[in-house]
Amino acid sequence: MVKIRLKRFGKKREVSYRIVAAQSTSRRDGRPLEELGYYNPRTDETRLEVPAIVRRLQQGAQPTDTVRSILEKANIFEQVKTASKAEA
Fold first, then answer.
1. CA distance 64 to 82
2. CATH number of the domain that 43 lies in?
3. pLDDT tens for residues 41-59?
């Protein structure tokens, strides 16, 4: 199963995360299938590759709870709904 989750990077106590698509059985900081964005909790900076995230969600990728809240703030799930309606 493919999960959309956070990959930790940065120095000690100065952490930031990449939002990645990875197999659920792979390590947290292992090689991802695709990098989908960036999240810095210290400054609340978020950069998302929206078309790639929408495509992964339509293919059945499951976001983790933290990533789900980030995507909800960015209204990504609304775009998934409209994209699926446009295809039908």
1. 22
2. 3.30.1320.10
3. 999 899 999 999 999 999 9
